[in-house]
Amino acid sequence: MAYFSREGQDGYDLIEWIASQTWSNGRIGMRGSSYTGTNQWFIAREQPPHLSCITPSATLGRPMQNVPYFDGAFAVAWAINWIGLALNIKVLIVNQSHPDP
């Protein structure tokens, strides 16, 4: 399954489910950064009727082109770092062509 392939549709369903709950006033807003910020754009594109506002920050500029590929090439270093962050593994890949003296 492609990265970000279902987030918009899943988000639409979630927004409408929240709006249908007795504890909801039906006006749904979203906030977040990075992955959760980028998801807001995909969800808003689906136009859920009860989505009132989004406040994305630090989102991906071209998520369908740049994650996890950069101009068509698989980004191994990015993927390893992301997996490490997602699994809370303390790993940092440093790309240094010239070591610091």
Automatic annotation (TrEMBL):
Alphabetized InterPro entries for the sequence: AB_hydrolase_fold, CocE/Ser_esterase, Xaa-Pro-like_dom
Ranges of residues in domain Xaa-Pro dipeptidyl-peptidase-like: 4-90
Domain of life: Eukaryota
Any GO molecular function: hydrolase activity
Entry protein name: Xaa-Pro dipeptidyl-peptidase-like domain-containing protein
